[in-house]
Amino acid sequence: MRERILTLVALIALLFATVYAPVQAEGSAELPGTGKTIYIDPGHGGIETGAVHVGADGKVDLIERDVNLAIGLKLRALLQAAGFRVAMSRETNASPNTPPVDRNGDGRVNNRDEYQAVVDLANESGADLMVSIHNNGSTNKAISGTEVWFSPLRSFADKNLLLARLLQANLVASIRALGYNTIDRGIKDDSVYRVFNGRVYEIFVLGEADNTRFHPRAANMPAALGESLFLTNDADAAMLAQDRTQQAIAQGYFNAIIQYFARLASGELLEFPVPASGAPSVGPVAEPAAEATPLPITPPEPLGPRLVPRPMPME
């Protein structure tokens, strides 16, 4: 009897060790995001709605500002679960520049200050990486698909390019996994985002600082801007309105971020070396800039990737 009791005790001890040891080991393992900070910019906010979809009844039924935020909050949850610290330009539909402040020193408070707020908050967060979440628009409702923008002019242009490529691949894959065959529009060079009167305009949150354009501070970390789908295209908009699509897009961003840090940790040499001057010696291969609508005779300075008129004025 004594031997049976000892054997039973030993079996219970072995079972206890088998059940609980893996849990302890797993709990002590370092999560992939440990020690890293990601800054999420759900594009637009407040009265700056971004692109919109107009239904058959002539009424706006989907607003980019809202869709971007929904995706951003889903991405935050994924990143935090993986151990990342996350900061955001906004967590509600309010403008990032709340309360309104003249951040760029031009004597006015307008949408330039909103974009400068995005940059300033990113720098204050000490983020290792920034992703700006947008969805596209065009006056041509037939245009649809997925694209990513990056800056080749920053001192970390090689990392921008790496992130852009990973984002493009993962966003397209995630959306197609839903059974929706989004058009792969490729990665875009933001240094030629728009040209007007012989002057080139970059996307504000990605580009270099330029005091002559009331852009006093640039983001300090690698970044890319995703345009998941077109709100102005009926089929794309129908997808964007669904929670499962927003979750899939968030997953695409998440997968790209995980892969980005894995590539850096592997020590693999990055393509597209950037000289000390910060200007690339050889530009990356990228598709031409997206279709743009004709600019008015006296346009405001282009600040972000918007290709359609907004329901409310930008300035």
Ordered list of secondary-structure elements with their pairings:
Elements: H1 2-28, E1 37-42, E2 52-54, E3 60-63, H2 64-81, E4 85-88, H3 111-125, E5 129-136, E6 146-150, H4 157-176, E7 184-189, E8 194-196, E9 199-201, E10 223-230, H5 234-240, H6 243-265
Helix pairs in contact: 2-6, 4-6
How is this structure best described in words?
This protein is an alpha/beta fold. The chain folds into two domains: 1-30; 34-265, 3-Layer(aba) Sandwich (Aminopeptidase). The protein is 35% helix and 16% strand. The protein has six helices and ten strands; from the N terminus they run H-E-E-E-H-E-H-E-E-H-E-E-E-E-H-H. The strands form three sheets. The chain has a six-stranded mixed sheet with strand order 4-1-5-10-6-7, sandwiched between helices. A hairpin with a 5-residue loop joins strand 2 and strand 3. Helix 4 packs antiparallel against helix 6 (243-265). Mean pLDDT is 81; it is low at 8-28 and 275-315.
CATH class categorisation of the largest domain: Alpha Beta
Mean pLDDT level: 81
Structural class: alpha/beta
Which strand order does the major sheet show?
Answer: 4-1-5-10-6-7
Major β-sheet profile? 6 strands, mixed
| Rg from alpha-carbon coordinates | 23 Å
Quaternary state of the chains: single chain
CATH superfamily of the largest domain: Zn-dependent exopeptidases
Terminal residue distance: 88 Å
The CATH topology label of the largest domain is Aminopeptidase
Number of domains: 2
Fraction in beta strands: 15-25%
Return the CATH architecture of the largest domain. Answer: 3-Layer(aba) Sandwich
> Low-confidence spans: pLDDT under 50, at least 5 residues?
8-28, 275-315
- Residues in helices, as a percent range: 25-40%
For the secondary structure, the number of strands is 10
Rough outline: globular
Q: Tally the helices: what do you get?
A: 6
